[in-house]
Structure formats: structure tokens, C-alpha cells
Amino acid sequence: MSILKGVYSFVFSTLIVRLISLIVQFVLGWYLSVEDYGIFGMAISLGVFVSCFQQSGLRNLLIQKNGGKFKIEGIANEALFLGLFLSTLSGVILISIAYLYAAHRDEPFLILIALMLSIAGVVAFSVPVLRSKLSSDLRFSELAVIDTINNSVVNLTMIPLSIFGFGPMSFVIHRPFVQILEVYLYRRLLPNFNCTLSFRTLDFHLIRRLLWQMRWIAVGAIFTALSVKGDYLVLGFFVDASVLGFYFFGYQLTGAFANLISGSVFTNVFMPSFSRLNQEPLKQLEQFHNSLLSMLMICFPIFISAAVFVEYCINFIWDYKWCESVLVAQLLLLGLPLRLCSPLLRALFEAQGKWRKTAAMLGVNGI
Fold first, then answer.
1. What angle do CA 140, 335, 228 make, to 5 degrees?
2. Of 362, 47, 90, 30, nearest in space to 236 by CA
3. Residue 25: CB partners within 8 Å, gap ≥ 6?
4. HEC string of 295-331?
5. pLDDT tens digit string along 69-111?
6. For residue range 343-352, what is the model confidence (pLDDT) as tens digits?
7. Which of 110, 142, 209, 256 is the most buried (most CB within 10 A)?
């Protein structure tokens, strides 16, 4: 019952956020240029390679380890230190790569975008720990509310920024402040959870163990980045910003459906729910099969219908300004059903702590 309620909560949250996102997309499509979309597409492709490891990797490890002799409360201080260390390291790497990439493409905005994304990551260093606590307690509805608020503020703030001429910075300049709000919301929901970093009581032996256990998650994160944003990175080397902008616009437009099959539902609902059944493998496998069948029956007709009507929507709403994005959107929508099994199987492997298998599966998917 908790899984079903969690799925409904996150699907409802995703639908609200994507509805807001579509409204924002409508405005941005008129006020931002194709080049603005292309520049942000390049930056976000670099950012995902360093951020997904810090965020999802640490969170998933904590969820999987919670129980038995390991409790999130008992290792929260070390986990917070890892979050701060990884977010800072990720930021330095991101800015360095963006500097080299900007020099290659002659796009100085890439450095500024990378800087804002890095600051936002450091501000949110405690989020993986706080989120893992709520996930382990199966408090899915509250997670969905935070996601709705966070993503809604991120999207809606882009409208005045784009109108006032911030260009590609409209996507990122406000994100550090939104991360502060997100941390505040988590702390309000977990008033009795001690989430204060104390350097004097750190157990560096435990930190080394956690880092070692995250090695396959790190590999998997790289492959995840390849499958999710690797296309931007590759295209960025071979095409100009305007061509990449058309591709990125089509990708953003279909993001509502991509999030339904590979986003918050699988990460925040199925993975912790499967973890609760690690001592009952047959029941766990049955739950996996039932979940996969249910998701296929619900999502498959949605993707096909959307691929048929997306051309008319794009041309009608933006008066053919983004007509070159139509084919991109259609192909992405038609390919989504084939990718349905991957995130659910990943949730099962991560729940079982099979990080090597997860990395191998993501590697195949990324290639």
C-alpha cells in the first residue's frame, strides 16, 4: 500500500511540475533564443557528470545500508562530510571542465553557468542525507511535496529572469537560493534528526569504507550521465549552439514523460520499498514483476499518443519557431517505452546492493 500511495504521490507531483514546466517552456520559447537553449544544454551536460554521483550515489547507498547494524542516524555525521566533500569536489571539477569547454567553443557563459550550478551543489550538500532518511521511513508523500515546491520555484523563477534579459543565465542564476529553501523544508520535516556536521567527531575509517562501497555507484553515475545527457556533450563538440538548441528544446518538451519513467518514482519509491524486502527475495521479485507490468500498461499508450500530437502542439503554440524540434521530440517519445525496464531494474539492483551489476547495466544503456 505504501508503494502504491508513493507512486501516486510522485506521479501527481510530476504532473504538477511538468504542467508548470510546460507553461514556463511556452514563455521561454518566445523570449529565449535557440543559442540560449544550446548554451545551457552544453552546461547541463557537463554538470550531470559530476552532480549525479554526489546526489543520487550517496543517497542510494544510505538507503540500501539502512537497517541492521547500520542506521542513517548513526552515520549521519560521516555522510554529511561525504556530501560536503563530494559536492565541493564536483564543483571544482565542473568549473574546470567548463573552462576548457568554453575555450573550445568560445562560449564564456558556460563558466558562469557552471559556477552557479557548483554553488547550488555545495549549498545542498546535506540533501542526500535528509532525503535518504525520509525515503527509508517511506514518507513518500512528503518527499513529493518538497519536489513539487522545489521544482515549481525553479521553473517559475525562470519567467521573470528571461523577460528581463538574463539569457542562458535564466536557467541557473536562482538555483543556489532554491537549494537553501529545499534544505529548510527537509529540516522542518525532520526536526528530531540531528543533521549538523561536526568535524571533531568524524570517523574517518567509516568514511573510507563508505567511499569504497560507493566505487561502483561512481561508475554507474558516469554511465547514467552518458545515457541521460551524453547526447548534449557529443553534439556540443560537432554542432553549433543553435542546432543543439533545437535538440535541447525538443528534449525539454518531452521531459514530462521521461520523468515519469526514470525520475522520482523509481528513485524515491521503488528503491527503498524493494530494500524493505531484502530478507524476502521471492516476495521482492514478485513485487518487481507486478510493478513492471503495471507501469507498461499505464505508460505505453501515453507515449504513443504524445508522439502523434506533439507536432501539432509545437507548431501551433510557437508559430513554427521550433518546428525543427518536432522530429527530435517524436523520436524521444517513441523510444521511451523501450527504456522502461532499465530504471526499475536499477532500483531492484540498488536495493540489493548489487552496485557492480547496476554499473554494468548502466554502461550498456549509456553506450
1. 60
2. 47
3. 252, 253
4. HHHHHHHHHHHHHHHHHHHHHHHCCCCCHHHHHHHHH
5. 667 778 888 888 988 988 888 888 888 888 887 887 777 888 8
6. 778 778 877 7
7. 110
